[in-house]
Structures are given as structure tokens and as C-alpha cells.
């Protein structure tokens, strides 16, 4: 690396991080406003959801006053936003517990589910993508390409349903529901994690295998790799020294975006298998018009996505300075 490139990279990376952080804060603010507005426009509120449609109007009014729902929407939103800046997401309208406690209970479960999927995603996507690209046109490449194309074309809920039918109903080797008894943790019964993790992983893996395959094929056919082969450099060294350093950095931001999807807890996977994560908490809170919980979950998911996108951009700059100094 030349001194000029080093200086430019040192100056460009902090600027990139600062710009991304400012943009991320704007995204979080927009997400909070959109979610709050959507819940306000939905019919009913937490009081009517809790008491039912046939409840006494006076009881509904009393509960609305107790929950603070009689205040103007803008005031309620600004109060919640000010508290969220200090880490206070308010109190759940339904359970009357601090929202931070609700998030803390579910976030660990979601992080476990998404983390397992990420740990499997990265090596499998890189390994299968490289293996397929280096065997372009052969039977192995056609099998991998056909399988990934098929997975990309199938919705996530269909994959989950097929997995349940095969492994839970027909074979009976895995549970169909990822139920966690009170007082226990998901790792106490690791078999309940298998089907949700595979469901989460399937579509993400297919996309990323195809991404890595395309990048490796392009770089492998380039002048640098071909010249190295003509000079007698062994193929494995060509791949490690010339192909991967150029093919992987462009894929890193995409990897991180998918990691954000996985760590955020896929809504379909968690609700399909009854897994007690953030996504299922969001569904329950939405049904009960529990606005503080809905906003907090949405904000946490958006923050994870923003940070992982930032991580992907930073890694891409560090591994390939040309990507960073031109921004």
C-alpha cells in the first residue's frame, strides 16, 4: 500500500463512518415516526383491544386516561422519543412492565437464533460459492446453481412448511413447534432450534452462494489470475492470493445486510414455529395495539440493520481501499 493510498484511506474511513451514522440516525427517526403513525391509523387502541369491542364506553375512557391515550398523538410520540433517547422505552400498555424488560427477554432468544444462522451462513456461502465457481460448467456447478435457484424462488413460509411436514410429521425426528417452557432457555432443548435456523438460512444462503459464485468467476477469469497461472502459480495459491481478496470485499455489505435480517429475527420463521423472539413479540404487541413495544422492537431491528450495514461498508473499505477512497 502506498503512502498516498494509506492517507486517503485514513481520511476516508472516518468520514464514511460519520456519514453512515448520521444517515442511520435519520433512518431510526423515520422508522419510529412511521411505526407510530401506522399504529395511530389502525382501528382501535390498547384500551379497546384489552376490554373488547362490547366493553362499557366509560371503562374504555377510564383505561384510555390511565394509559395516557387521551393525550394528543404528537405529545405521546415526542414523550416516547425523548425517553427512547435516554434508553427508556416506556411501559407496556398490555403487561404494564417496562418495555426494556420485554425487549431484554426476547432479544437474547432472537440473537441466538440469528447468530446460529449467521455462523452457518458465512462459511457455507463462501465455501459453496467458491467451490461452484471453480467448477463452472461441471456437474457440481450445475447442481449447486440449480439448488440455489430453486431456493431463491421458494417463499420462506413454504420452506418452513416442507421442513415441518418432512422432519416433524413424517419422520418425527424434530419438533414442529419451538416451544420454550417457562424458566428454561432455548439451548436447554437445542433440537427446537434446528427447523427455524434452517428455514432462516435457506433463502439467505441461496442468495449469497450465487453472489460469491458470480464474483469468484469474474475475478478468476481476469488478467491477474490468468497471468499467475501462466507463471506457474498453483491453483490454490491463485485462489487465495488473487481471487478471494478481490471477489469477497464486494460481497461483504450484502453478507452484513443478510446478517441484519437473520439477527433481527425473521417474522415468518419465529411466528411459524412459535419461537419466543422479538418478531413474535412484535406480532403479539401489534394485535394488542401495544404501541410502546411495537415501536421499541421496530427501533431495535432498525438499529441492528443500520449497524451491520455500517460494518459491511467499513470491512469493504479495509479489505479493498479503492472502494472507500472513491466514495
- Given as residue ranges, the uncertain stretches (5+ residues, pLDDT < 50) are 1-10, 323-327
Whole-number total of structural domains: 2
Helix content, binned percent = over 70%
Oligomer kind? single chain
Order of helices and strands: HHHHHHHHHHHHHHH
Number of helices: 15
CATH architecture of the largest domain: Orthogonal Bundle
Q: How far apart are the termini?
A: 19 Å
At the third CATH level, what is the topology name of the largest domain?
MetI-like fold
SSE layout:
Layout: H1 3-41, H2 46-51, H3 57-67, H4 73-85, H5 99-133, H6 139-153, H7 156-170, H8 194-220, H9 223-230, H10 235-247, H11 252-263, H12 267-273, H13 278-287, H14 291-319, H15 321-325
Helix pairs in contact: 1-14, 5-6, 5-8, 5-11, 5-14, 6-8, 7-8, 8-10, 8-11, 8-12, 9-10, 11-14, 12-13, 13-14
Task: Characterize this entry briefly.
This protein is mainly alpha-helical.
What keyword list fits this structure?
MetI-like fold, MetI-like_sf, ABC transmembrane type-1 domain-containing protein, MetI-like, 75% helix, membrane, mainly alpha, BPD_transp_1_N
Describe the protein.
- With 327 residues, the protein is mainly α.
- The chain folds into two domains: 1-94 and 288-327, no CATH class; 105-287, MetI-like (MetI-like fold).
- It is built from 15 helices and no strands.
- The chain has helices at 3-41, 46-51, 57-67, 73-85, 99-133, 139-153, 156-170, 194-220, 223-230, 235-247, 252-263, 267-273, 278-287, 291-319, 321-325.
- Helix 8 crosses helix 10 (235-247) and helix 11 packs antiparallel against helix 14 (291-319).
- It starts with a helix and ends with a helix.
- Mean pLDDT is 80; it is low at 1-10 and 323-327.
